[in-house]
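Students often ask what a holo structure prediction actually looks like on paper. The answer is less mysterious than it sounds. You provide the chain, you provide the ligand, and the output is a string of discrete structure tokens encoding the 3D arrangement of the protein together with calcium ion.
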Amino acid sequence: MQERILVVEDEESIARGLKGDLELEGYSVDVMTDGDEALSRILEQTYDLLLLDIMLPGIDGYEICREVRKRGISVPIICLTAKTQEAEIILGLDLGADDYITKPFSPRELRARIRANLRKHNTGENQISRFGDFKLNTTRMELTHNGTLIQLTPTEFKLLAAFVTHPGIVLTRDQLLDEVWGSDVFLSDRVVDTNIAYLRKKLAAHDSQARHYIKTIRGAGYRFDEQLADLS
Ligand code: CA
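The corresponding structure tokens follow.
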């Protein structure tokens, strides 16, 4: 299937060049020149990759990155940046871009980066688990519910990931302490209970049934069961 790329670039000559070049490579290419319009388009259509200029009319490329990731969209993003300052590049990557290329760039280098990012994305380096309407991306450490990002602490995230990757299996408090906090840390079991309470509350805020996904197994520990949610 033809892979779809969205080029967001306000300099027409660059945009035109990119479109022609990438179409020759066999991609289907759309071009947008305005930041706000590009974001609306990204939210309503599916692309396999975004090539994103930073300085744009409307919202800038950084803001687009931030909004796209906030909504749990994991499309690969390559920033086209005229800036060589490291800080600018790091900001883009922090906001969720996968890669960047500095203008002026060689078409060959860009094509190689596009192929590499598509490959990386398609081979599933993003580990994604789904339960109910939730989606857990353990690569990005993101939990979303119907596309809405849920704010978890790193501890809550690791705890949830431990459960989701061991569905239907009772995990003892000791196992959870080892898995989430590390085996060289000595903590009370209570810290597990407290964090599970927080986690249940955050899940339930988006889906009331989800509070029952993590079951307390008396005298043993906890078990993650998405299936039995409505029997509790
Ligand atoms: Ca620009």
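The CA atoms of residues 128 and 155 lie 18 Å apart.
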